[in-house]
Write a structure and sequence with these properties.
This protein is an alpha/beta fold. Helices cover about 25% and strands about 25% of the residues. It is globular.
Length: about 280
Amino acid sequence: MMVDQNRIYLEDIGEIVMSRGGKDIWLVKEISQHEAFRGRSLPDKIYVVDFPGRGLGEEFLLSRQACGAEKFLMIKDIGHDMMRLFERMFDGKLAQFVILWGGRPLDLLDANPPLHRSRLPDTTYIKLTRIEDKAVSRGWNIVESPFVGEWWQDETWIIMEECIASGSTLTYFVEEALQHHRPKKIFLFPVCASLEGLEGICRTCSEQGVELIPVYNGALIQVAEKGVTMPFTDLGLQPRTIITHHFYHDLNERYQGRPLCWVGDIGDSIYKPEDHLIET
């Protein structure tokens, strides 16, 4: 098996705390104490669900070409599988905030079978759109439209977003949401996400006394330094992307070491598959 000796692997910084239903749950503790990530604002605990043996979670990250209904259902199945593994950690009443359109496949109202709870989760749908604005320092503003639901006063929140790169949009949402209510816990279950994307959210939750529990699918990804360029180099096998040894072998074999994003533009790949395939 091919191994890059300069890479940090999941086996180096994490441990398997549970295996269930063919999935391994890894726990990475205090990653900000590691010399490669020292000083960064990251949660003390990060969970990674590994689908070994080309399970669905791994297959998703190996299938950049997937699009349309196929990709929608893959995200749905992976996300709901991960949520079921952590259901016992949901305290009290549960609310979900579905970030449209990417988070739509994760909607728990579509879970089949339903999560075994006494009631359906309180649900809010929200669309966040970046609007270019050169007058502000970051170069853009975020507009909420529409907002269907409430700022639920529940103990546990799940923020449904399928892909996290820089995390700036999600950080904006968390900052806004915590002005209305502070739950005990906030869960994230992205199917493809970076460590960088956690930093703003982690900082906000820490300041507000809210426990942030991120559960990642298969990898802690480094965002490409060059940003988004064709063919989408945000989330891929960068030097500090952390995965297991066997998954590194599969990814390197699949993408031949090229700096491709594993998922491309998920919104386009699901809702504009023809455009996605042409650009890919």
